[in-house]
# Entry
Amino acid sequence: KQEVTQIPAALSVPEGENLVLNCSFTDSAIYNLQWFRQDPGKGLTSLLLIQSSQREQTSGRLNASLDKSSGRSTLYIAASQPGDSATYLCAVKSSGGSNYKLTFGKGTLLTVNP
Amino acid sequence: GAGVSQSPRYKVAKRGQDVALRCDPISGHVSLFWYQQALGQGPEFLTYFQNEAQLDKSGLPSDRFFAERPEGSVSTLKIQRTQQEDSAVYLCASSIQGARNQPQHFGDGTRLSIL
# Structure
């Protein structure tokens, strides 16, 4: 059974700092990995999706990497801003029979202080 | 709006009551998913539809939970005889196709509180 772990559970940084969020998964047989952002009381906003054949994806100040063989992904946020404060969730889509469902980690609660 | 729409946004019910949660997916999206998110946890898969067919309901916690999508568009998640442990945010997602490389687009969820 696929399990996804995110470290740290919470992170507080001053504005302008670069930061890294970590995600690990137990079964490397995945189709893709997706990073989401969740604001309080809101649904999930997709940030980046990395296919299993890719090593990284970039969007603006965000960069996500994937090392499938070791079961790890990182989300790098450059020059953090208070508006980046949210919970960041990592989710994997496993290959095999149930290749439609996402398995999520518990998330990292990020606070960027002005 | 072109996103996934869920209603109601908030629902409070007494233990033992039945509730129904609605999801309007993005127009043209074939696949629809329900997830349950407990406080402080990541979402957990409940069930999956492709058009009107429910292809996977393995994540439904008990037989009190029932989901349908009769015309392959709007979906309803029904919970009968609600219990306090049913309190959670219920998220709906849709995608153009269900499998593999298509991203899932999420609604804002319904926050269910059972008193």
In short: Chain B touches chain A through 29 residues (CB under 8 Å). The radius of gyration of chain B is 13 Å. The first strand of chain B starts at residue 5 and ends at 7. Chain B has a mean pLDDT of 94.
